[in-house]
Design a protein that fits this description.
The structure is a homotetramer. Helix content of chain A is about 45%, strand content about 10%. The first copy, chain A, is of the alpha+beta class. In chain A, the strands form four sheets. The first copy, chain A, has a four-stranded mixed beta sheet. In chain A, α2 runs parallel beside α5, α6 runs parallel beside α14 and α17 crosses α18. The N and C termini of chain A lie far apart (about 70 Å). The interface between A and B is large, with 45 and 45 residues.
Chain lengths: ~450, ~450, ~450, ~450
């Protein structure tokens, strides 16, 4: 059964036109069928970068485009491995092309469990997209599971175990999930393209060419050291310049508070109004099914926000409006030494008429651009190994000064968010009343920093 | 008043990062304020190409990105005109830079009246995005109108008249709306970029450089003839290859039928189910306000479709599912001579269990890539004029064989759409019963054409 | 013998970084050895576009880069053919992968016979680069021949017959030489890239995907019609905008006259001066060997021009200076009706002190962008055939209006070249004396045309 | 006089099409005239990257293209400065647009003194391109000087002093020459484009936008910190991956030895053969004029090498052939600890029949990617200053970990070059005799390193 269906190459390969990879080549019927499932098509309605398009307006691409991109990179690597490093005897550390299908399916599906406005939603409603991905793969009610099961009874479990990183072959796991995997390579290139920045570009073709399977997973030929270095620096840059952008984070803060407010009102029996957000209710009560989860997407949440613009609760309605009409909060950088000033500032915000619980926040965005393998870590990382001519391995940061500079060091910042009104630049209406409050507030800010 | 606000250049110009124009430069406070209006931000929730992302998955960009792009092209042309062809005396046919602000505002707002799934929605609910654009500009309840009114009492009317093509200065009108205008130039480049095709590329910088204001509007320096020719051919190609793609048109057919079915059910009092699509109801009864119109976006419609998946009406529920899960109809080309076969085919579709009213359709996509000015035409076109060294004008198709080939000739095709099931390729379940019907149906099709 | 060497795949494929194709993949030892021959390396010293860099300064790329590009496109097509259309039985019209090596070698070597400043040189010294290519392949003294002979005694003859279009398999011939071949596809993309224009871009990947071998050669799947159309239009545009640029043609005129003057002086025994252009002498006397031919390159000619700057003959020295220091002639368009004015103009040029034989010229640049097969033609063209689903063929211009517009119609213009001084714009020194002559001359010119 | 000519804006600006900057805009007659000088046109015959095209075949661009690119970047920065930071009162640290012309001329001419195969030529013949640039600007016999003198008697001296970094306004000097100047920004982008690599790309538009004139020269707005960081990393990467490529360095070694051999033979009276390399002779005797220097270009040297292929001296003839036919030496990395092995290896090379003086070499390529200002240094560097909102300055490496990692640390390697034959991979002919020598030689090499 397994071989029959998995062997079912399409009579003629199909292509999807893709701005990043030019074409995406679909050769297996399984892959085509997975793309056509309801759960996978739903990814078209979830933006890859959440609210980042509020800062970089071009970044409106969905998780669908990213997912087929990860599939395509994985497929190309499989082709290169099959041609250049085919397994001769089991255990020789080379590539066993029987692993191709499980790798391709895991690559395609790795993000299928993402929910509407993914990270913010998870924060408020305690969901986890990685677990949801596995659930979608394993639950017999999903079309995804039905397609995978045709390959073999055990096949969904295998695919899910790649996501869970428990699949026995480390090469397959590292293809999908490591510090330099198909997932990261696609999103850097894709997010660069759609934002219109070029920080995330690196030489994908060259990196794929220097990848080499070995017993411990995937290593990189020493000749590609600088290409790998360039990839890591690009990743670092994208985090600093795009993913951690203060305006996007501020819109996330608003979204987070908006959902929290709705939940609080609901629990207090105060989410009134003629309209009932049926599709969200199971999440307010922490009692949702997989089907509930799959009914949501960015557009559904936005639709509820559209209703809430007119909700009697002034905070809910104001936050919904700020979110839909893109009225970001302002922010400044906080350091451990200036953290103590925040309560004072929140006080001033309250004096100016804003509930600080919903109109201020601190948010830290930190990333660990690269790290060594550390078995004591909670999620130990697979370090990047370079293979020399004599097949011995060298860890990357030991030969690259640039990489060493970012190894094991988190980068990013913590920011304090507050209403734009506090800057006191437009003193219309009641603004004048609060002018002294605004002035005092602004005395605590200089050069994008809190000061004492 | 007018000059005070319109003269209000921002102390420091703002930039938006854009993949097509690299940066978009915002220099006037009016423009910044217009972008920040509720009505303009709403464009982020309406896709530029409707359902085209079902064929070209990358094309998920919104009308927001296109609108700021049209603004930017217009701004650059104004800069070039002001530098190279400044008016010396009124009526000399050169550029009067006092027209800049009205041109920029019209450029930015030219699409602000687009509705959710624009063309299909208009078809079913008899709305008109150009009229809505003017309404949004002129209605004192909109934030857009409130911003424009600060420039001058008469300013909204002026901007609206550019959209209506009744503004007295033909240069301003042609910048926004002619056979080679800022609108078309932006969408060709942008749609190319996001679809990942390259058919729509042409040399924008060069075309802008050869544009020249003259008494009759805008002409092009003879030295730029080939650049203009290239633009027209690119536009032709984009229509043939992207905008008229049969799969996108098939998804539009489904969307059209889905909305029609809902309307029919509603009018018949049969749109039952626990859920009420409140935001759509005013349109079912042809009795909607501007505010109703502005509450809709692609996501709201998709949300209703999500509910309708589970509607008791089998046609509504099936069409909603086909739309959300991307199950396109199939299609073949129809010619005047083969048109007569369609009823026979619809009959067969009915025999196979599908209501042909909702599961078949013919749809023609024709475009007139370029045409001469014809005063007898309903919408006479401004023909493209080339200016020679001695300032005399020559119409483009008289000097370009390529352009002549597409002048005044519509291009495109008419197609007949039908359920994929009719191809009889997967005879599972009840499929076998209908095998003879399918066979008969397919005998009418050869080489993507209907045959007798 | 043949199979041993040709089968000698490199243990590890080599790659060359290429701006157009990203990487060029070298898999056969034969190809690597051919690239390393003296005759092929010489192509690095001959510019692909001759003097076009005088107009488009970026276009300084050599025939070397183009040649490896043509090889790479051919290799990719072979890969696609071998995967999708492998021969099952001889004569079935599908691809026989035993043809790969001869195709690759012919692709790589198709331009190896180009000489210094190719077309101009040919014009003056009556050489022919296609014949020289075959000679280099067949002559046992060349390194190219020595490498090819290792594949098989007969192999050089086979490769040369592909160049001569007498090779029995039309698929191989058409890959290298037809109206849409690897040669043209590479040069359009490459020349676009290096000139910095974008007129020559088209969708190479898509065209390669729709190519199909058949008994008569190579056809294109009907689904790729628009991609082929786009290619032809791009080619047309590149001719109009780049290859026929008047300034480049004017520099060619100077080069042509400069070489002619040197030849005339030499034949008259008047090419005096301390320096002897040894490497050119065999060509002055029409008595050169293959080795003489291969000693020349653009730099050698330029070096002689550097010497000739100081030659006692004022015409030779002036033309050399104009060429090296880029002082183009001016030009205007001539039509059959205005041709008769030229002698008058030449007279005026003579009156202004320039020998019209060396300082004026007419030059027509015409191209036939696409044509049908015509057995009566001297060089009958392989027309472009589209293959429908039922495998029947349709000729391209019968289904594309755009192509029909350029089919069988030459395009281009004829121009009359004359010294810039005739425009009388800088009347320094003796200029004033000639002012009346200049004025009379310019009365014959209007809107870039000769007028009566 | 000065103002008349410098004010002479062209009636219509001219444009040059450029692949990097799209168009180069020429607005001043001075600039157009400088481009048309003999000395500047000569740059078309000198490759920007010397022999790097032997590794990256696309990199065949000349110093001409780079020079107009540096001009264009400078022009754009002047435009931005003039618009955003115009001087109000002398000494206010803002931009005085009277400096524009001297800045543009210096930018355009900064490389005009480069000679044929620049660095290698300088090494052998003790020339210095920066001094030659100043000489060309100042010497009244050059066309460059004649054009500049028309602006003002003193103008050539001013332009030359910018090159010499003694010009009083530090903003002008730093535009042309600092750690982030128009020169470096152009060559990184251009060399990336022509090599087809993408390591050198960075966000030029953004960097130009954040540049700010101040009393001490040019600073960068803090908001552009990451863009500057990205530029420095790109520069570092280009050095590691392109400029220091071992194959290019090996071709430089051959060129160096070839010129040295010719000089040695000449001095010993042994440079025989029928042909006299007249244009080189003044350099063999260290007694050359500016005119001698300007007669040389890459093609002239190649022409001499073409003659020397047949020179009776076997070393000269072999090296000329290796250079023209691209037969690079091989190389391995040397460290201070393995340096001592080199004499042993040279001995073995001699045993294998090669004169080690001409067939081996060590060559170190080190670059200091970024450094702080150090007044004690021989050439103190202008450190990169970031300007905060309150106008205070912060040095870049104090806020960027990535930059800190490369600050003040040279990067690169030292390599030992030797004939490919020593690897003993092709034991044809006399090869077998030397097999033991080869074996011994190769025992000293492992993983691209010398080992003991």
């Amino acid at each position: 059964m397994h071989f029959q269906y998995s062997g079912a190459l399409l009579p003629m390969e199909k292509v999807l036109r893709d701005p990043i990879h030019n074409y995406i080549y679909i050769q297996n019927k399984v892959i085509l069928d997975l793309i056509n499932t309801r759960e996978f098509q739903r990814l078209r309605r979830i933006r890859q970068l959440g609210v980042a398009n509020m800062t970089f307006h071009g970044a409106e691409h969905s998780r669908f485009t990213h997912s087929v991109g990860v599939y395509e990179i994985t497929r190309r690597i499989c082709d290169l491995f099959a041609r250049n490093y085919p397994q001769v005897t089991p255990g020789d550390g080379l590539w066993n092309d029987d692993e191709r299908l499980v790798a391709l399916c895991a690559a395609l599906l790795h993000d299928v469990g993402h929910g509407a406005y993914s990270h913010t939603f998870e924060h408020i409603f305690h969901t986890d997209h990685e677990q949801m991905t596995q659930k979608i793969i394993l639950d017999p009610t999903t079309e995804v599971n039905q397609v995978l099961s045709q390959v073999g009874e055990d096949f969904p479990t295998q695919v899910a175990s790649v996501i869970a990183k428990t699949y026995p072959n480390p090469q397959v796991v590292q293809l999908i999930s490591s510090q330099i995997d198909a997932d990261r390579m696609d999103y850097l290139l894709r997010d660069s393209y759609y934002t219109g920045t070029n920080y995330g570009t690196f030489d994908l073709t060259r990196i794929m060419r220097v990848m080499r399977p070995y017993t411990g997973g995937i290593a990189f030929d020493m000749s590609g050291m600088h290409a790998v270095e360039d990839y890591l620096v690009s990743r670092f840059q994208m985090y600093q310049q795009v993913y951690f952008h203060p305006v996007s984070r501020s819109m996330e803060v608003i979204l987070d508070h908006l959902l929290r407010r709705a939940k609080v009102l609901f629990k207090a029996g105060k989410l009134t109004g003629s309209f009932k957000p049926e599709l969200l209710l199971p999440f307010f009560t922490d009692n949702f099914t997989l089907s509930d989860y799959l009914s949501l997407d960015d557009g559904v949440l936005n639709t509820y926000f559209t209703y809430w613009r007119h909700n009697p609760d002034p905070i809910l309605s104001d936050l919904a409006t700020r979110f839909l009409d893109r009225k970001p909060l302002k922010s400044v950088r906080v350091t451990p030494t200036t953290h103590a000033i925040i309560p004072t500032l929140q006080d001033l915000v309250a004096q100016a008429g804003f509930n600080p619980e919903y109109y201020t926040d601190t948010n830290d965005s930190f990333d660990l651009p690269y790290d060594l393998y550390d078995p004591r870590s909670k999620k130990p990382r697979t370090q990047i190994e370079l293979m020399q001519k004599d097949k011995s391995l060298v860890e990357l940061s030991s030969v690259s000064d640039l990489v060493l500079a970012i190894t094991g060091r988190t980068s990013g910042d913590e920011r304090f968010f507050f209403p734009k009104e506090m800057r006191g630049t437009s003193l219309q209406g009641q603004g004048e009343v609060f002018a002294p409050v605004y002035r005092e507030f602004m005395q605590h800010i200089k050069n994008d920093q809190l000061i004492k």
